[in-house]
């Protein structure tokens, strides 16, 4: 059992290092590489989805739209006017996976107070779909792809680490930010 835990921990750490290294390389290379790369990562790149203007003030980027694991589209504007817990996560992030059942329970209780939980997966869409098939959640999931790291940074995640959670009030103001497991 100890060996298995050690192997899982080592694999998780290696994945985290690989993700950070890839992100640093991408930043030095000068960005994400255009529309094709964004489409592969699950970010909806249709016109009018410039998140930089809204998010620069720390408010939700209401114009953003994300593909969903089931093939639909999720508009962030559909959460406007209600409290929103926005959680950035990835399948390769052990603390992210560990907190998902807790977030699922919270989502049910928060909905009774007219609040919503939205998970933005900073990951490969195929990996997200496979994970959710094994471990479904009741709250909304958007496929932010690796561009989700940029969005989380604009919302206050200076390191780009995961998980990262932001709580917005009804007017879209940041109430709380949390880097790490909730």
Keywords:
single chain, 182 residues, alpha/beta, 5-stranded mixed β-sheet, two-stranded antiparallel sheet, 6 helices, 7 strands, 18% strand
Q: What integer value in Å does the Rg equal?
A: 16 Å
Structural class: alpha/beta
Q: How many beta strands in the DSSP annotation?
A: 7
Stretches where pLDDT falls below 50 for ≥5 residues? 5-57
SSE blueprint:
Elements lengths: L1 H28 L5 H7 L10 H4 L9 E3 L5 E3 L8 E6 L4 H18 L4 E6 L3 H10 L5 E4 L4 H7 L9 E5 L5 E6 L3
Parallel strand pairs: 3-4, 4-5
Antiparallel strand pairs: 1-2, 3-6, 6-7
Q: What does this protein structure show overall?
A:
- The chain is α/β, with parallel strands linked by helices.
- It has helices at residues 2-29, 35-41, 52-55, 94-111, 125-134, 148-154, and strands at 65-67, 73-75, 84-89, 116-121, 140-143, 164-168, 174-179.
- It is built from 6 helices and 7 strands; from the N terminus they run αααβββαβαβαββ.
- The strands form 2 sheets. A 5-stranded mixed sheet has the order 5-4-3-6-7, with helices on both faces. A two-stranded antiparallel ribbon has the order 1-2.
- Strand 1 (65-67) and strand 2 (73-75) form a beta hairpin.
- The protein is globular and about 35 Å long.
- Residues 5-57 have low confidence and may be disordered.
């Amino acid at each position: 059992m100890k060996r298995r835990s050690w192997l899982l921990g080592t694999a998780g750490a290696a994945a985290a290092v690989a993700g950070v290294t890839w992100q640093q390389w991408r930043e030095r290379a000068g960005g994400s590489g255009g529309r094709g790369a964004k489409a592969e990562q699950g970010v909806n790149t249709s016109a009018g989805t410039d998140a930089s203007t809204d998010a620069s003030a720390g408010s939700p980027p209401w114009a953003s739209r994300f593909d969903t694991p089931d093939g639909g589209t999720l508009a962030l504007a559909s959460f406007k006017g209600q409290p929103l817990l926005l959680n950035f996560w990835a399948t390769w992030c052990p603390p992210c996976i560990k907190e998902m059942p807790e977030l699922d329970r919270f989502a049910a209780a928060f909905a009774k107070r007219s609040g919503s939980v939205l998970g933005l997966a900073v990951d490969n869409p195929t990996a997200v779909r496979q994970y959710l098939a094994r471990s479904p959640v009741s709250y909304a999931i958007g496929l932010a792809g690796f561009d989700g790291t940029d969005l989380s940074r604009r919302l206050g995640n200076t390191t780009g680490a995961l998980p990262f959670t932001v709580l917005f009030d009804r007017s879209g103001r940041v109430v709380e930010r949390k880097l790490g497991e909730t």
